[in-house]
Each structure stands twice: as C-alpha cells, then as structure tokens.
Design a protein that fits this description.
This protein has 456 residues and is of the alpha/beta class. The protein has 17 helices and 10 strands. The longest helix is centred in the middle third of the chain and has 24 residues. InterPro entries: YcjX-like (IPR007413).
Length: 456
C-alpha cells in the first residue's frame, strides 16, 4: 500500500485493511492453509468459532486485485481445484512471495448496529517461504562466523560427507575460478536439499533452495569455508558474495514485504520433526527462535530502522497436520509446540505482541477410528494414502510432558528412547464439499478469530 493510501486510511477515507503474513518451513502447509482459509471465509458454514461469521456480521466476501502490482498473485483458484476437484491432490508448495486480497462486507451486530452502516474490510494475505525468513540471522553474522557455525552444524546431517569431499579437493591458495565456486555451491546446495528432506529446519541461505530467477547468479554461488582458507582468493571471493547476498537479496525482502505485516502466521510441522528424531526437534526449536527475532520491535540495528514504529500485533503459531492424530492427542501436540517456542514466545509477548499456539489442520484428510492391539484400544485416524489405499493409523502416543521430548533433544540425543513416532502421508479426501461450506478443517475458524476477529 502506498503512502497516499496509508494517509487516506489514517484519515478514515479509505477502507481498512489487515495485512497477514503466512510463513513456515518446508512442508508446513502454507499453500493449503491460505487456500482453505480463503475458501472458508468465502463459504463460512464451517467457521463457527469466528464470531463475525457465526452471528452473520460478515455479509459477503469476494476476491479482488491485490494492492501490490509487482507481486505475483497467489494462485488461489488452481490450488483450490487441486484440493477439492474430482481427483484431489496436494498443490505445489511456496516458491516465491505471492499475495491475495480478500474483501469482506461486514455489518456490525448488537445494540449499536443501527448507528453504523456496513463496512468493507480488506484482508491482504502475503505468502512467503520460511526459509527466506531464516536468512534474517545472516544479517548479523560475518562470513567467518556463518561458515564456522554452518560447518559445525552440518557434521551429522545428510550430504555433509559429499560436501567435505568437495572441500578437501580445493587448493585454498589457487587462483579463483568460477567452475570451482560452482562445484562447491552445488555440493552445499545438495546438502541443504537432503537435510530438508530428512526433516531439518535450519537450511540457510534460503534462496539456495528456492532460487527462482536468481539461479546461477554469483550472489547464490558461494559456500561455507573453514578458517584455514581465510587467506586465499576463494575465501575472499566467497566472503564478498556472502555480503552481496545479505545486501542485495535479504535486506530488500525485509524492506519490501516483511516490514509491512500486521498479523503473522507461523506454521510448524511438529509431527514431522518428532518423526525425524531428537536432533531435528532441537533444530526446529533453534530455527523458530531465530524466526521470532524478526518480530521483536525496538530491536537494535538495520531491522529496527526498517520497521520504524510498526509492530506485528498478533502472531499465531500453528502445529499443522493435526488430522494425523486422534483428537485426544491434540492438546499434547499443542503443549509440545508451546514448549518448543517458549523462549521465542516470551520475547514476543514481552515486546507487546499477542501470541497464540494451537494445533490445526487447514484441510482435514482423515476420520477418527480405533485400532485394537492386543487388549488395548488405540485412538487412531483413517484416511486415503497417496497410492489410493485406505488405512487406519496410530502414530504413537505423544507424551503428556513436553520435556520428555525436548530435554533429550537439547542434550544431544540421536534417537528417542522407548518410543517410536511415525507419520503417514494422506491424500486430500474426495467428496467433502457441501453447499455453503468451505473445505473441512480442524480449528481453522479459531485461527481466523485470533487473526482478524477483533477487526470484524
């Protein structure tokens, strides 16, 4: 929104708008969340916990062009068709910044309703990869610091051996040449891809995984190097490119998109991290703490200058894929998320932002079931697998006390003791649409009430 539009809104001459940022790490379900949220705000039969929908205050909802003409439009129609069509399937994930504007016509209810006519409120949803947000931490690190941290962190991750092999073949004193730089960057990027596939969260620089039109550019052609190479030409050139990445890629993203967010959704695949093991859970905890540093108003340095007096008013942390668990385990999933984000949430709460943690499924793919195992009834879910087969599934029992998971993760455990947590890939369920209803979900209405209920 331009300066003139902001001025008109401040004077009450323009329709109010709420700018919601949606991010999360890979496979957290950003695309599905946005698609289902918009569909359920347009057809509100399943949005009972959104008070403005339940009491009839929202009269109608429609899509219109977003205010930012240079930002790609979120492809809502194609994603909705993928999820709800005759052969439902999961849409492609987020690969760049996109935006969608949903406008709501709202008539206030209650004793003062007659004194105020209907109002149009615009919901601007900005979708961006969580990997890009993790790049925030790079802004406060030198190439030497980033290299040391990355080389230490990657030791036990997939693809680390291949990168070390590529590094061992380098003569640090040799004259710089581009094929060598490309070889190292490709080996490091391959490591990042493998780590992400294995459930790791902190895979930076984020543009290495989602390069878009920058693929092959010098700003994306560098890799971490040990301090023993610091006097060589390759090290000097990689340090220069690292600095260019921060100034030419990371900083413009925060200036142009992030600094204008009013409300923020952070989606977390907690179940995926638990399945991957204690190191992935600890990595997720650290990554989310890093992400939350971006929401600290008054923070010193370049980010504070960009944000100025603006602050993110509300932050929703959502553990996705709650439909993979029977409802009896949902409170445990929420408790694990809350404990994982405790340090980061406390920082945000202290700075004045309202925060909420909940377990959700933006698109419900299962029904609840019971599996008989010996003399025990296990609370399970049933759904359609990606290959078309029907299956009942019990993923394991999450602990009542989150410390049972978080303490081993922080202490460096490599596997869970006396527990085995599984995940299953379910396909979107067919034939779930009803007239006047959006796609089936779990607590998406509660999420919407937290994010926008106060403004409706």
């Amino acid at each position: 929104m331009g300066i003139g539009s902001n001025l008109m809104q401040g004077l009450g001459l323009a329709d109010p708008s709420i700018r919601i940022g949606v991010t999360g790490l890979s496979r957290a379900g950003k695309t599905v969340f946005i698609t289902s949220l918009v569909a359920n705000l347009m057809d509100r039969g399943r949005m009972h916990a959104l008070r403005a929908a339940a009491d009839g205050s929202i009269k109608t909802a429609w899509l219109q062009p977003q205010p930012d003409d240079t930002v790609p439009r979120f492809d809502y129609e194609r994603h909705l068709a993928a999820l709800t069509g005759p052969e439902p399937h999961w849409p492609d994930g987020t690969r760049h910044v996109s935006q969608l504007r949903l406008s709501l016509r709202v008539q206030p209810q209650g004793m003062f309703a007659g004194l105020r006519g209907p109002q149009t409120i615009h919901i601007d949803i900005v979708d961006y990869p969580g990997e890009w947000l993790l790049d925030l931490r790079l802004m406060e690190r030198s190439f030497a610091e980033w290299s040391a941290e990355t080389l230490e962190r990657m030791a036990d991750r997939p693809g680390a051996g291949e990168y070390k092999t590529a590094l061992d073949g380098i003569d640090p004193s040799a004259r710089f040449d581009e094929p060598t730089a490309q070889h190292l960057a490709e080996a490091y990027t391959s490591h990042l891809r493998q780590a992400r596939e294995a459930g790791w969260s902190d895979c930076t620089p984020g543009r290495f995984l989602l390069p878009g039109e920058m693929a092959g550019s010098p700003a994306l052609t560098f890799a971490p190097l040990p301090a023993t190479m610091k006097d060589g030409p390759l090290y000097r050139e990689f340090r220069r490119r690292f600095d260019a990445y921060k100034s030419r890629v990371v900083k413009p993203f925060f200036r142009d998109h992030f600094a204008r967010i009013d409300r923020q959704v952070v989606l977390v695949d907690v179940l995926g991290a638990i399945h991957a093991g204690p190191p992935a859970v600890e990595d997720m905890r650290r990554a989310m703490a890093d992400i939350l540093t971006a929401f600290r108003p008054g923070r010193a340095g370049w980010l504070a200058q960009l944000l100025g007096a603006r602050r993110v008013e509300r932050i929703l942390f959502a553990a996705t894929k709650a439909d993979h668990l029977n409802h009896v385990q949902h409170p445990r999933l929420t408790n694990i998320l809350t404990a994982t984000l405790r340090e980061a949430r406390d920082r945000a709460d202290f700075s004045g932002a309202r925060t909420e943690a909940m377990s959700i499924a933006a698109l419900r793919t299962t029904t609840e079931d019971v599996i008989r195992q010996g003399d025990e009834d296990l609370p399970a879910v049933r759904g359609t697998l990606m290959d078309g087969r029907q299956a009942a599934f019990f993923p394991g029992e999450l602990p009542n006390d989150p410390a049972v998971l978080l303490h081993p993760a922080r202490d460096g455990a490599t596997e869970w003791l006396n527990a085995d947590y599984a995940i299953m890939n379910f396909a979107p369920a067919a034939g779930t649409a009803r007239q006047g209803d959006g796609p089936p979900h779990i607590r998406l209405d509660r999420a919407a009430e937290f994010l926008i209920g106060d403004r409706l």
